[in-house]
Amino acid sequence: MWEYTDKVKDHFLNPRNVGELEDYDGKGEVGSIACGDALTLYFKLGAEKRIEKVSFQTFGCASAIASSSALTEMLKGKTLEEAKAISNDDIAGFLGGLPKEKMHCSVMGQEALEAAIASYEGKTVIQPEGVMVCECFGVTDKQIERVVSENQLAAIADVTDYIKAGGGCGQCHDEIQAIIDRIRGTVTEPKTRTVKLTNVQKIKMIEETLEREIRPALEQDGGNIELIDVNGNLVQVQLRGTCATCRLSQVTLKEYVETKLRELVTPELVVEEVPA
């Protein structure tokens, strides 16, 4: 499905510092299981106020586990000021890189670290400030502004890769693009759809994409997918094999299947799983 470095595979298969740290000094919680990823980070300070112990608990994909494990290794022995300087790019770099579709996992690690340090310093960690832009994943305009500015993002798909915003229903795409334009000082040309797909054309392209791009990747892990119906821009599918029972099936559905169909067919598509 995605190309992972040996270091990502190692930290996924052999994660370091897993579990709850009971005598922690700082604790940060970010994400939610409903959105597919959640991370809790703990640290304990030792001599000279350096991080002596650090651990994590996460619910997420291979990249989320690997990013969390890598972050804990990076934090050992650092002062809080040194820890504050760690960015999501540093986490990805430590792992030898992450697929662009999985950069949100490194962002989640950075946010958990910031929340843990804030809890130690006695600062109230409130929900991200700003106006809600992406209702599907609970992302505000301030969060989008930050990730666009810090990572020089130029497209909606990039924002989705980093913080998932825009990866659900798609209704926030215009707002995300406006933020990108404002931060980068550019103006996007009005969208032009010179060719509007008929439903027959759309179904054919979806079937071809499933057969050529998506099904082979799922079959490598013992899974499969079946197209059930297409109603406007709603694509209804059923996951088969190991995909049907995997606890991360919804992550696969949204972050891989839907992303591929939007990229290769039309960006308005929304994928939904229906009961067998």
Helix/strand-derived class? alpha+beta
Helical coverage, percent range: 40-55%
Give start-end ranges of low-pLDDT stretches: 190-194
The domain tally reads: 3
Your description of this structure?
This protein is 45% helix and 18% strand. The protein has three domains: 115 residues, Sufe protein. Chain: A; 53 residues, Orthogonal Bundle (Arc Repressor Mutant, subunit A); 75 residues, GMP Synthetase, Chain A, domain 3. The longest helix has 22 residues. The protein has eleven helices and eight strands. The relative contact order is 0.10. With 276 residues, it is of the alpha+beta class. Strands 1-2-3 form a three-stranded antiparallel beta sheet. It has a three-stranded mixed beta sheet with strand order 6-7-8. A two-stranded antiparallel sheet has the order 4-5. A hairpin with a 5-residue loop joins strand 2 and strand 3.
Record keyword descriptors for this entry.
single chain; 276 residues; alpha+beta; Sufe protein. Chain: A; Arc Repressor Mutant, subunit A; GMP Synthetase, Chain A, domain 3; 3 domains; 3-stranded antiparallel β-sheet; 3-stranded mixed β-sheet; 8 strands; 45% helix; globular
Characterize this entry briefly.
The protein is of the alpha+beta class and about 280 residues long. It contains 11 helices and 8 strands.
